[in-house]
Specification:
Length: 59
Amino acid sequence: MNLGSLYLKINSTGIITFSELDWVTKQQFNFSRVEEALAIKLGRLLDSGDINIGCRIYC
């Protein structure tokens, strides 16, 4: 998993799961500068309510 593909999935569904959020927090020390900016953007989207923490139901 990389942050770019995760961001696209989160942005399209509007949901981040607890396991994805856990992965982001555990990997934050290995992020490049661009990935750090993306992680900050994810945090801002969570704070503003544009992204919710939950689960995805696949059909």
